[in-house]
Amino acid sequence: MERTAAVVLGAGLARRFGGGKMLALLDGSPMLQHVLDLAASVGLEPVIVILGDDAAAIERTLAWRNERGVLNPNPASGVSGSVRLGLAELADSDVERAVVLLGDQPRLSAEQLSALVSVPGDVRRPIVVPRFAGRPGNPVLLERPAWNLAAELRGDRGMSQLFHRRPDLVRYVEMPGENPDIDTPEDLLAVSRGEG
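Above: the chain sequence. Below: its structure as tokens.
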């Protein structure tokens, strides 16, 4: 199997949440900790964690293994800037693919992530997108030939900007279950109750 890295996006401003989202507790652990633990459980390596204004608090609070924190100096640039930073960190490595994980999706399961990572490589269609109940979602798997496309990204929408513009590069994989985002305190409460 090709060596697969993780780029974990945790630099968002979390305006709708009221700030501090990555450290919000879910089942007794910070939200971002769940995502880092998941990446480790599936064997993703290296794990690049993009951090924003609360980087110091996150670095103090989380249980780190070999993950590498990278500061996004301009978190207001949105998801696109964080994706570019993460892929740039991997540019000189021998990694062949990277999964872009969102720090606010702590309920993604190891089974779901393993299913995505086990999709065979195809350099002609280097973007692999999961579909939950028929709807495209995250995380997105990027094979190295797709990394340069990150330069085209703008704002807070990430790789989804490319799905309509470059459908010839995308493969979809049907996934069981759900993968809810946590954008507000109400979302966190719903997910903690198993409603998300």
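The radius of gyration is 15 Å.
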